[in-house]
């Protein structure tokens, strides 16, 4: 039987424009915090799996990004694997870490996701993000997304714009519904000391902000950010902590299929269904959820793909208050990508750090009372019509 795996340590930096911090220093801070939180030392770590998406394009640092960060954190000589998988880079790194422990090759693995995106022209960063799509198909896909335009301000926001318009057509979601996702998550982010934006917004502010790719406005779109998050995973038979462990019940990584060959069921739903089957739970068992809301309306779509509600019922679920703090299944209690920030390579780990914090009962003013089972959905890249990758992870607080 595969070994059970617990998350025994979690660390995260504040997200935002960290002009005083490099990629390696951000990563080092998160890794040191996670190791300390686990009550371990660097000598206890058998492997580092490092997730980063864009350093090679933005800074030229290819190939050994994790080794450079490990040296900064006092982890030199520890075996390092580097994982690059678009926005799912660090959740994919968790997938790799689980395989390493379950195989019996390693007992304790440190996972870190980090990204440094600020300090460069916005155009440079947006172009780097576009490398998460099939470069040869971008002109063709752009024309299809926009109805003929050759260029857009942000390729990925054009993708989310098309997805949003299609969702509105089939669900009846209004502009107010789209804005209300950002309003909800801004209220959550205001309670998160590590969030990039910590001010609750009104519907009028969200709708009145600058249009990016209609119907998306600036305040519905995730910002450019710097940050890092880290986790310590350990074989459950070695975890001698006195606190209730956070067990990894499932971690499923899926890849998209482009063009006419893409299945009728979207990648996120396929991946979530596999994760539910692996964990032996269903959407009705979830207490807290993190979804990849790179654009706020995507949260409405994910309600349905994850089975939190029926098809076309996302706006109704949002309006009921069920996905807000105090509701039946709070979604993005840390503010999500739009308010917490989206340093691409760090996002997958950041979602899991939030779930661990919630399941331990340490989330302060944003705590979901009695949270026991949490799910994170993290998608990235684009193959049209599927994302390039999606990871769905389910965690459970074990014990009393």
UniProtKB/TrEMBL annotation:
Organism: Amycolatopsis endophytica
CDD domains, per database record: SCP-x_thiolase
GO biological process: lipid transport
UniProt protein name: propanoyl-CoA C-acyltransferase
Pfam families found in the cross-reference section: Thiolase_C_1, Thiolase_N
Domain of life the protein comes from: Bacteria
Coiled coil region boundaries: none
E.C. designation(s): 2.3.1.176
Highest classification ranks of the organism: Bacteria, Bacillati, Actinomycetota, Actinomycetes, Pseudonocardiales
Domain called Thiolase C-terminal: residue spans: 269-384
Keywords for the protein's UniProt record, in alphabetical order: Lipid transport, Lipid-binding, Transferase, Transport
Thiolase N-terminal domain residues: 6-235
Claim: Transport is one of the keywords in the record: yes
Molecular function in Gene Ontology: acyltransferase activity, transferring groups other than amino-acyl groups; lipid binding
